[in-house]
Amino acid sequence: MLVILACLFVCILLYLFYKFFEQKRSQECYILHYECFKPSDDRKVSTEFAGEMIKRCENLGLEEYRFLLRAIVSSGIGEDTYGPKNFFLERGTNSTLSDSEFEMDVFFTETLDRLFSRSRVSPQDIDILVVNVSVMTLVPSLTSRIINHYKMREDIKSFNISGMGCSASLISINLVQNMFKSHKNIFALVLTSEAIAPNWYNGNNKSMILTNCLFRCGGCSVLLTNKPALRKQAMFKLKCLVRTHLGSSDEAYTCCRQQEDEQGHIGFFLGKDLPKTATRALTENLRNIAPKIMPLSAIFRFVLLTNIQKIGARYFDIKVKKKVSLNFKLGVDHFCLHPGGKAVIEGVQRSLGLSDDDMEPSRMTLHRFGNTSASSLWYVLGYMEAKKRLRKGDRVLMIGFGSGFKCNSCMWEVLRDLDDKNVWEDCVDNFPPKSLLNPYLEKYGWINEENAASAIEAILESTSIN
Questions:
Q1: Residue 358: inside a domain, yes or no?
Q2: Cis preceding-peptide flag for 405 (omega within 30 of 0)
Q3: Which of 88, 231, 264, 364 has fewest C-beta within 10 Å?
Q4: Sequence-separated (6 or more) residues with CB below 8 Å from residue 8
Q5: Are 320 and 313 in contact (CB under 8 A)?
Q6: Does residue 14 fall inside a structural domain?
Q7: Range of the domain at 255
Q8: What is the distance between the alpha carbons of residues 111 and 181, in angstroms, rounded to a whole number?
Q9: Which helix (H) or strand (E) covers residue 47, if one does?
Q10: Residue 265 half-sphere exposure, CB side, CA atoms within 13 Å?
Q11: In a domain, 326, yes or no
């Protein structure tokens, strides 16, 4: 009798263990496939064309034009980025509702058609649909537009996210991750993009016209699942995700926002406190994610040396020449940083002590595609894959910033060797180029503070700009 009870107890225990691990496996978050958007070549924004667009702005004077010229020269953006179709028409930046609809329709149809074809997943198989476009709202929503186009199921759970800025992509991933915890064996789609067509700033506020130089068209569609049976087909597995929000601080809340200028022109204000706020948000975020991704030995060494420095400074009056920093390379193989701009990339590189090789994917993405807002991270990831850097077992740290102010990060584990050239197929063999100089730097690089005024006047006169 005791033997029977013991066997029964063991069976129940094994069953409970099985159910526990089965439930844990069904809560995993895998990326099956992702597709970045590459617009047609007739939408390429060369540096010369960017200058022509700036010249169309009637409200810009000599000082503003000089400021934008310097911004273009030093932006790190190359000749092959993309703008919305209406920019190339006679009416230019004067967009209509149909321009915005066209920009979104081309993005989602091209990426989703390829994604469904390559993954062999049907639109009717999708259980969750999340779309994030921060600065455009359509009625019906973009999610409804996609559901109607692909005739998806009536019980699909859809979420349309706006106002989250460049960090929206990881917010969408976090939403799917939480949904996976209560729904087993399902598929989810995350679409991330930004509407450029209706958001050109026509004023002359220097803190607002800079965004006209940085942002470009792009987008990405990501197919995720929590089906354990599809693990071997998956590309990445989500290890952890941490979100940091500094919105309670007035300084952080107001440093990056959409507003009207004194003349009533709507645009995006980038305040002087933005770099300091971004550094603070990054520091807070890394402090929270470090224990989840770093080996215990590295954390122990960091805590020990930090305390030794504090004790030495407090009790022995020992001046600290250099603070102890946590070496994230001990827990991370690849750094997928949002290419928000040259200053952002260089700032994070200094903060984390990273090499030029670590930052190459972000720099090349900024050069080739510009800042495509929340979708930029996936172009960076695509570059790593196209360069055959991602091998099974590698760990990829994604870091994104957004208005509010937010810093979000997550760690992906590579589940198989990846070598698809994806959206980089036509150019990856030419990257990194020997030089990231653009024609404006080659043509106007001799301009300095002393001769700037006369130089800009000559440029304006030669280009018939008043």
A1: yes
A2: yes
A3: 264
A4: none
A5: yes
A6: no
A7: 28-294+331-462
A8: 27
A9: helix 47-55
A10: 20
A11: no
Residue spans of the chain under pLDDT 70? 1-26, 305, 307-324, 437-466
Burial class of residue 302 (count of CB atoms within 10 Å of its CB; 0-12, 13-18, 19+):
middle
Task: Report which secondary-structure segment, H or E, holds 239.
Answer: strand 236-245
pLDDT in the model for residue 410: 97
Six-digit token pair at 345?
């990339």
Sign of CA dihedral 45, 84, 380, 113: negative
- Looking at the domain assignment, is residue 15 inside a domain? no
pLDDT at residue 237, rounded to an integer = 98
C-alpha span between 157 and 332 (Å, rounded): 34
- How far is 74 from 266, CA to CA, in rounded Å? 25
H, E, C per residue of 405-427 = CEEEEEEEEECCCCCCCHHHCCC
Smallest CA-to-CA distance from 75 within 98, 102, 54, 99 is with: 54
Mind telling me the catalytic residues?
A: 166, 245, 334, 338, 367, 371
Provide φ and ψ at 339, rounded to 5°: -80, 65
DSSP H or E run through 444: helix 439-444
**CA contacts within 13 A on the Cβ side of 258:** 12
Structure tokens at 306: 């930090």
CATH code of 149's domain? 3.40.47.10
Q: What integer pLDDT is reported at residue 433 of this predicted model?
A: 87
Q: Cα–Cα distance between 464 and 466 in angstroms, integer? A: 7
| 134 DSSP assignment | T
* Of residues 410, 366, 364, the one with CA closest to residue 387: 364
As a whole number of angstroms, the distance between CA 228 and CA 30 comes to 9
Number of domains forming the structure of the chain: 1
- Tally Cβ neighbours within 10 Å of residue 5: 9
The pLDDT of residue 310 is: 65
Please give the span between the terminal C-alpha atoms of the chain, in angstroms, as a whole number.
Answer: 101
- pLDDT per residue over 229-259, tens digit each? 999 999 999 999 999 999 999 999 998 888 8
